[in-house]
Amino acid sequence: MPYTELLRLWNESVQAVDAKDWEGALAKLQQIPEQTSRTHFNAASAHLALGQLDMALRCLDLTIAKDERLAVAFFQRAAVMLQMDRSEEALSDCIWAQEHMRGNAVIDYRQLGLRYKLYYWQILYNTAAAYCRMGQWESAMDKLVSATQDRGQGRGGNIEVALKSRREVLDPLLVPVGSVFRPRKQEIEQLHQRDFLGKAKVMCPLGNYLIFTICHQHKLHYKKVLGSIPSLGSVRGVCMFSLCMRGFSLGTPASHSPKT
């Protein structure tokens, strides 16, 4: 599939997500034969919004298969596994997420198109949630205290008391519903500009001898020679041929086509 078509379907799926049309978003993504880690992640987000945990988990598996260093994918998959009572596997993903934070306290994914910041303390919190479900309360406490200290705020105080007194199971943290990877704005603008131009071809006035086509940078490129160049006996023919070849060599289209 051409990248422009992938880009169009990806953008339309994001628009469907913004409209909370989860089924529509999935329908667009399913039309992409070779998806990327980001489109798989988006599909997982849509499945989560629909409450389809199994399908979300499958999409996150594919996300990680495409990008084994994407910390936010491990974080999200761990949260889904916790909801499915697969605590040991969730704990493993939390450990991998910590590893792929590469010593950073936070990773801002906006450069990749995801409007989300993943904090190290959030991973520690989900690690504590996994230990809770496994009945390892001391380990859960240790991770929770670390998460509270790493965050630098007092939110963890009440939760620590709950763990000590009633041993409550913690709900995992997830990437918010609707937070998906988006294509770059510049690429979408170029795509819209290309769609506006359409697929029309600009014919050189020499007839069927030279054909030029407009590419997405709006430059004229030589495409195909259909016949031999005729004898340029007339001044008019020489001028038109020179004008076309000059436009081709400079890589810029003529502002006006000569009248025939």
From TrEMBL:
> Does Coiled coil appear among the keywords?
no
What main location does UniProt list?
Answer: cytoplasm
State the organism of origin.
Poecilia mexicana
GO MF entry, a single one: superoxide-generating NADPH oxidase activator activity
Q: Which GO terms describe its biological process?
A: superoxide anion generation
**Keyword set includes Cytoplasm:** yes
GO cellular component terms, alphabetically, are: cytoplasm
Task: Tell me the keywords, alphabetical order.
Answer: Cytoplasm, Repeat, SH3 domain, TPR repeat
What superkingdom does the record give?
Eukaryota
Concerning its family, UniProt says:
Belongs to the NCF2/NOXA1 family.
Per UniProt, subcellular location reads as:
Cytoplasm
Name assigned to this protein: NADPH oxidase activator 1
